[in-house]
Each structure stands twice: as C-alpha cells, then as structure tokens.
Amino acid sequence: METIISVSNLQKSFKTNHVLKDVHFKIQKGQIFALLGSNGAGKTTIVNILSTLIKPDGGNARICGNDVIEHPERVRHSISLTGQFAAVDGTLTGRENVTLIAKLRSVKNPDAVADSLLGRFGLGDAADKRAAVYSGGMTRKLDIAMSLIGNPEMIFLDEPTTGLDPESRIEVWKTIKELSDNGTTILLTTQYLEEAEYLADKIAILHGGNIIASGTLDELKKMFPPAKKEYIEKQPTLEEIFLAIVGVETEVTQ
C-alpha cells in the first residue's frame, strides 16, 4: 500500500514548551488516520507542520514523497486543510464561496465545479442562500467541500466537529467516511473518542510530546486486559436518546 505521509523524529518547541519531542507515524493511501490527544498535546502543531504553515525544529516529514521543508510548494499542491474554525464567508452564498476558491486555485470551469461539489454534499438546495444562514453542520460541509477543490490527495481535518450539535456531527461523520471510500486520505485530529472509533482505520495517541500508542481499534483494545464480564442492562446515553427521538441514523458504515 502506498505511503502518503511519513513522519519521523518530529520535534517542535515554543520557547521552553517542548510540544513535540520525537513523533513517528505513517499514513497509507485512502486511510482515515485519527490523531487523539488532550488540549495542548500538539495535534494542531503536527497539522500546521505537515501543511507547511510552520517549520519543525527537527525530524523529517514527507507528503506524497515531498519533504515539507525542502519542497513546501509541492506539498501544498497535494493537500488541503480544514481548520477548527470554518473558513466560510457568511456574506457570500454557498455557490459563491465554492466558486471563489475554485477561481483562486485556477480550476477550469469553476461554476461547474461548484455545482458538482454542492450537489455531492447535499447543499444544492441551499446553494444560493447566504452561508451566514447555514446550520453548523451545513457550514462545516461547505468548508469541507471547498477543501476538495483541485482534488487533493491528502486532507487535514483539525477537530472538524468541535461545537456541532449531535445531528450535525453525524452528518459530518458520514461526509468524511464517503471521502475515504472514494480514495481520499484523511488525517483527523479530535478529542472525541467516539469520533475516532466510528471513523478511523488507524488511531494514534499523542501524549507528552510523543505517540505513545498507535494501531487499529482492535489492536489498541488488545493492549488492555480482557474486560470483566458483567451482565447488566445497558442504559442509553442522553445523546442516543436525543438522536432516536429526532429520528437521526446514528450508525456510520465502517
């Protein structure tokens, strides 16, 4: 399987704060790779280094065979970044937002590209409404749609569902899964463990400046002793109750 991202001995400090000490991981083509960690663990720092926004203090990182320090322009041609806050202009319509980015990226037939992406993300009916009136889930879907312009090989999603309501979160999860099913490689940072459990092909846990564990969900489960079997009645969580009442499908196909 083709390796899209290769990171070794990655290091980054901000004054006396050693955020990344010795980070190693690889991401294969078409994978959803979830990077877990608490606030301040360095997840966004890794994304910023890989997307060439900041330089590491040491180590090596390559995307699609290109070194992020030596060939940043080549890296930028093969990636797209969706940050924690949606980069959507609320004064423009959904169609105008997508068309604007398509023109900035010198994509041919920007109007046709906008129609295709808006339809793909279920935003066709809202295409000519100002983005300011979109729900949180619609705004995030528009943001992700904009990140796909130019067909990047690699997409970074930095905590894409932070602040979203349960329904919108499920919508975004399904969108992410569809992207992966179509061959897009995704690095996802999140604090929501259930998000990684639903979506990720591989999970890495960042703590203390290092990746302290990585693998599939099944592989990570094997690191712990067998669970003690107790026969009790499972009670639904409040989120499960809410989603059931409003009729939202909670299962995300693996």
Q: Report the CATH topology name.
A: Rossmann fold
Give the low-confidence spans.
Answer: none
Q: Alpha-carbon distance between the termini?
A: 19 Å
In the CATH hierarchy, what is the class?
Answer: Alpha Beta
Q: What oligomeric state best describes the polypeptide chains here?
A: single chain
General shape: globular
Number of domains: 1
Number of helices: 9
Largest sheet properties:
6 strands, mixed
Mean pLDDT across residues = 89
Number of strands: 10
Largest beta sheet: what is the strand line-up? 6-7-8-3-9-10
Structural class: alpha/beta
State the CATH superfamily name.
P-loop containing nucleotide triphosphate hydrolases
Question: Which CATH architecture is right?
Answer: 3-Layer(aba) Sandwich
Query: Percent range for helical residues?
Result: 25-40%
Q: How much of the sequence is in beta strands?
A: 25-35%
Q: Write the H/E string, N to C.
A: EEEHEEHEHHHEHEHEEHH
Report the C-alpha radius of gyration, rounded.
Answer: 19 Å
